[in-house]
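The step that takes the researchers longest sounds almost clerical: writing a folded protein down as plain text. The outcome of that step, for a single protein, is printed below.
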Amino acid sequence: MFHMRDKELSKLITRNLKNMNLDIQVMHVCGTHQDTIVKFGLDSIFNECGVKIIQGPGCPVCVTTPEEIETGIKLAENGVTIATFGDMVRVPGAKKSLQAVKAGGGDIRVVYGINEAVELAEKFDREGNGKEVVFMAVGFETTAPATAAVLLRELPENFSVVSCHRYIPPALVRILGMGEIALDGIIDPGHVSVIIGAKAYEEISRQYGIPQVIAGFEPIDVMMAVWMIA
């Protein structure tokens, strides 16, 4: 078993990639892969090897639609407390963001998760003001189960969820179906794949003829994924 930050192994992979005289484009799906690539300088290494890395769907907040943001805005403007993650507050809707609504007096609460939103609703319920709390839930397959698990509990009547969750495979199909990007391979996220399994990606490879590799988030994981695709 090799170490996830094995310097000698990374040099070996780099040499092998350079010897292949590549000119390929590979898309990663998860923003955490991008963090690893930038943090460890893999983008420059891959460029030297003839591998161009393209960012895919990445952060679920970034693929939240203006219509979903508008739903939260309308609820807040009608007196509902909106609880969501900090990144969501700044995402623009059709004309403004939740942050702008908050500046105008709307009750927008930044929380770290759905449990904190439930606690807020329970607090309002105890105080007897009957104010409704709506949690705007975002995330891919890794965070959707946490939302679902909470919804199975007995919850206060003044609590509800607007689901903005996303499923990775349809997002990939949508990107590939546009036909605007020529890809030689896709790096799929390890944590999502633990939940949905490898079979969820098989039809994509069959339909579009593009190889995929499921990878973790250490630098060697990403380098091995590119080498396997090449």
